[in-house]
Amino acid sequence: MTSCVEHTEACLAAAHEHNPRLRALIDIYDDQALAAAHAADAAAARGASLGLLHGMTVSVKANIDVAGQRTSAGAAFLADNIPAADAPVVERLRQAGAVVVGSANMAELAFGSRSFSAVGGQCRNPWNEQRIPGGSSGGSAVSVAANMCTGSLGTDTGGSVRLPACFNGVSGLRPTHGRIPIRGVLPVSEHNDTVGPLARDVRDVARLFAVLAGFDAKDATSVDARLANFLPTLGDGVAGLTIGLPRNHYFESLEPAVAEAVMAAARRLERAGAKLVDVDVPGAEHAHMHMSRAVFSDVCHVFHDRLKNQPGTITASVVERMRHGFEVTGIQYAEAMAFRNQLRLGMRGVFAQVDLLLSPTSPLAAPLIEDGANLLEATKAVTRNTYAGALASLPGLSVPCGFTPEGLPIGLQLEAAWWNEPLLLRAGVAFQQDTDFHRQQPPLQG
Q: What Gene3D superfamilies would the database entry show (predicted)?
């Protein structure tokens, strides 16, 4: 049996070997990680466990505070920002026995799909290094896919956990907004921001989620929602569940390989005992516009002074995309909030009919980094299926479900009603018990 130290050493070795090319981690915490691994092994030698994540190696997205380590969010003006305290989610990781191995690269200020940052450089997809890793939690997903760690913490405002999970062949959960604290996380839109775990295996995602979830009285967005011990039911399967296939929006204009893989995944869940039904998702086709207006306005609120007075301290492509928020009128923002209420009402109706909603995570596989599109266009192209659930504050899970003929991963998105993450995770486990897509290794170069 591999010790925690041996596992951590293997992860750090992979990081040092592949990170110069993949740029998945901004900083690698060699000494801190090995000290934590030794502590885990010492506890095991005493017959003790440090917690649910005993010895699990985890990277942390660079917009989440890690005490004594720089938390830059990939931005040059934050390159020397060293917080004195861990964010609550990092504190919970440590309390559960996790080994934090490094700071994950990301789209600068968590605003874009390519995961380029001024501090970390261009993060690259390990399945094809000319392709984007997705964003904004690109480094989180790549560090897992390239075996630099078992799990990672990302953040998801409109798809930033689910899309990197999809493009890198790993699993990623966006929780219900308010389920996991976001205190100590540099915001984009506090109305939509979530922290979410990534790992290859949904069971590891579930363990991370169980540790991270919980009320934080000092977090204005945190909701005191009960979470029972769901881990013993992860293997209960999908027999008897009703899964909705959206008739509108989600399955339109897909790459053929994506359509084929996702429908094959749906049929696999059907053979496992789930019932597939067609459903309409009212307003889904309009969610992207309203979500974009709201989030662009929110991010301009967060960085207003810097965008107005020091725009040169932010990478130009990020500034260009952010500034669209200055064009959003107060009436348009109010329209977006009114639409969100109606979308939530519509989703309530959907989940009165079905237990889960199934769709492609992205309509296409990972695009080229140099695809000729500006950051606004590039991000819009891949987020078409993730914005509606985010605007409605729903939980969503992306799991690997196949590959394109070019060998690029494809992601299956499952969404559930508010606070029903355990059902999502149960379905993800059932799918992975019958498949091995999540176990496939990218063709890493030495």
A: Amidase signature (AS) domain
Does residue 380 lie in a domain region?
yes
Q: What is the pTM of this model?
A: 0.98
The three-class DSSP label of residue 331 is helix
CA–CA separation, 169 vs 97, rounded Å? 26
Distance (Å, rounded) from C-alpha 412 to C-alpha 400?
A: 6
SS3 percent helix, strand, coil of the chain, rounded to 5, is 45, 15, 40
**Would residue 446 count as lying in a domain?**
no
308 is catalytic: no
3-state secondary structure of 63: coil
State the CB neighbour count (10 A cutoff) for residue 242. 15
Residue 445 lies in a domain: no
Query: Is 115 known to be catalytic?
Result: no
User: Using CA atoms in the order 347, 349, 354, 357, what is the torsion angle rounded to 10 degrees?
Assistant: -20
Is 136 annotated in the active site?
yes
pLDDT in tens, 36-88: 999 999 999 999 999 999 999 999 999 999 999 999 999 999 999 999 999 99
Residue from 61, 137, 140, 393 carrying the catalytic annotation: 61
Q: Are 195 and 176 in contact (CB under 8 A)?
A: no
CATH number of the structural domain spanning residue 328:
3.90.1300.10
b vs e for 117-147, b when ≥16 Cβ sit within 10 Å of the residue's Cβ?
A: bbbbebbbbbbbbebbbbbbbbbbbbbbbbb
Give the list of residues 6+ apart from residue 66 with CB closer than 8 angstroms, or none: 60, 83, 86, 87, 90, 100, 103
Q: Of the residues 72, 136, 137, 189, which is catalytic?
A: 136
Domain span at 295: 4-439
Task: Note the pLDDT tens digit of each residue in 154-184.
Answer: 999 999 999 999 999 999 999 999 999 999 9
Number of domains in the chain: 1
Given a contact cutoff of 8 angstroms between Cβ atoms, the answer to whether 145 and 101 are in contact is no
State the catalytic residue, choosing from 59, 137, 140, 160. Answer: 160
> Do residues 88 and 183 lie in contact, with contact meaning Cβ atoms separated by under 8 Å?
yes
